[in-house]
Specification:
- Helices cover 36% and strands 30% of the residues.
- An eight-stranded antiparallel β-barrel has the order 1-3-2-9-5-7-6-4.
- The radius of gyration is 18 Å and the shape is globular.
């Protein structure tokens, strides 16, 4: 991952990023982090599973509100940003993020070494603000997740994107497609990217994805998307990942993303 700033500098920067008007929505924005990782020689998911168990023991003691999923690429076309396995983590609020970072930097050294022996995540670590558009019907565990990189049209803002996204959720639900969905606005570590936000859609499985695709392709969803989202932003074709729950709080109501 990129070297972390000093704790005070990091927290100040996050506070500034999350105070910008683009996030001033009725919906609560929560912090999420993403690592893009590659396997160390000879390592695979079975090795990572052992480290995840160790991390779970650490989190139970030091990071009770943290949730995380591994993301394995399935349908992607990004050779410059390709990775073997991703790590998507979230906290219930910004205060929990700050406490989590402090604890990890002072107490997480052994677990960090265990992760580093299995996966190399030094190339990419970034933060984003997540705004839920359509919450999951149940606690999100394993499933399939799609990420669209979206660019705002001239004169449009993040607030416009949230409003259009919420309107599109209502329209698609009326047509029979209602997957969980969020907008992720890039924050620290995102670098010099050429888009403004991610549109994120999650399904329980590929059968649910296919059912929504049928609504989109043949049930009027494509037209609704163009009518509602088209005037606000343009989105690239999505990348699709298999998501597997890596860490859940004992209090499942704390899971936010």
């Amino acid at each position: 991952m990129k070297k972390l700033f000093a704790v005070v500098t990091l927290l100040l920067a996050v506070a500034v990023a999350w105070a910008q008007p683009v996030y001033a929505q009725a919906q609560k924005a929560v912090p999420v982090e993403f690592f893009a990782c590659n396997w160390q020689d000879g390592k695979d998911m079975s090795d990572l599973g052992k480290v995840i168990e160790k991390f779970g023991e650490y989190a139970d003691k030091n990071d009770s509100g943290y949730s995380a999923w591994t993301l394995t690429p399935q349908f992607t076309n990004d050779p410059d940003g390709a990775f073997d396995v991703g790590w998507l983590g979230s906290w219930p609020d910004v205060a929990a993020f700050g406490k989590s970072q402090d604890n990890w930097m002072s107490k997480g050294g052994d677990v960090a070494k265990a992760f580093a022996a299995v996966i190399d995540c030094s190339g990419r670590h970034e933060l984003a603000s997540s705004i839920v558009l359509n919450p999951p019907k149940q606690v999100p565990t394993d499933g399939v997740v799609m990420f669209y990189a979206c660019t705002l049209n001239d004169g449009k803002t993040g607030e416009d994107a949230v409003a259009a996204g919420s309107k599109l959720v209502a329209a698609m639900t009326a047509l029979g497609s209602s997957p969980a969905s969020w907008l992720f606005f890039p924050g620290l570590g995102a670098g010099d990217i050429d888009f403004d936000y991610w549109r994120v859609i999650a399904f329980d499985n590929y059968a649910d994805l296919a059912a929504s695709a049928e609504v989109y392709l043949n049930g009027g969803g494509w037209k609704k998307t163009q009518e509602i989202l088209g005037p606000v932003a343009s989105c690239a074709s999505p990348a699709v990942y298999d998501a597997r729950l890596a860490r859940a709080p004992k209090n499942l109501s704390l899971i936010h993303i």
